[in-house]
Design a protein that fits this description.
37% strand, six-stranded antiparallel sheet, 171 residues, Jelly Rolls, globular, alpha+beta
Length: 171
C-alpha cells in the first residue's frame, strides 16, 4: 500500500489519504473512527480478512493463527507524539505490521513498561495474549496494520477486551 504521509497534514487529511489507499487496494472499510485522542482506526470487512492478511502478513501461516473465523483486520493511525494506553487483553494476541512512519512500541510481560523500541515501516511485531503493550507516535504519523489472534474460540475478543494499566487520556 502506497503511503507517504506528510507530517504537515491534519488528522482528517491523513484519514482521507489512508481511506483512498485502502479503496485502491479494494478493501472495504466497515468502520472508521477519527475520534480517538491518540488518532484512530479503520476496521476492514471481516470477509476480506484473508486478503488483508495476505497483503500485510504474507509470512504468517494463517492456519496457525486462525483460532476462530475472525481476524478482525484493522488499520491503526497514531498521531505524532501521542500514545495509546498501556494495555493487555485476555482473549487475543495482536499482530502488527508497520506501514508508514517510525513508531514506538513498548512491551512487557509484567505491568512495568519496557523500553521504547523504534519500529520502521516493514517491521512486524506480535504480542501474546496477556502481554502488555503500547503503540506510540514519534515524530510522524504512524500507520499500522493489525490482526487479532482470538485465543478463545467460544468467546472471541472484542473492543471491551482491554485492560488499561495507564492511559494519558483518563479512560
Amino acid at each position: 500500500m502506497d503511503l507517504n504521509i506528510s507530517n504537515n497534514l491534519d488528522k482528517s487529511a491523513v484519514f482521507e489519504q489512508i481511506a483512498a489507499a485502502l479503496k485502491k487496494e479494494n478493501f472495504t472499510v466497515v468502520q472508521q473512527d477519527q475520534t480517538r485522542p491518540w488518532g484512530g482506526f479503520f476496521v476492514i470487512d471481516e470477509s476480506q480478512a484473508g486478503a488483508f492478511a495476505a497483503k500485510f502478513f504474507p509470512h504468517l501461516e494463517m492456519d496457525a493463527i486462525t483460532i476462530t473465523n475472525k481476524l478482525s483486520p484493522k488499520i491503526l493511525v497514531v498521531a505524532p507524539h501521542k500514545r495509546l494506553s498501556w494495555q493487555y487483553h485476555f482473549r487475543r494476541a495482536e499482530i502488527w505490521e508497520i506501514l508508514s512512519g517510525v513508531v514506538g512500541v513498548k512491551t512487557s510481560m509484567t505491568d512495568e513498561e519496557g523500553e521504547i523500541k523504534e519500529l520502521a515501516p516493514g517491521t512486524f511485531i506480535q504480542m501474546d495474549k496477556g502481554e502488555r503493550h503500547r503503540l506510540i507516535g514519534l515524530d510522524s504519523w504512524g500507520v499500522v496494520a493489525e490482526i487479532w489472534e482470538h485465543t478463545d474460540p467460544e468467546n472471541p475478543s472484542d473492543e471491551e477486551d482491554i485492560v488499561r494499566l495507564q492511559d494519558d487520556f483518563g479512560r
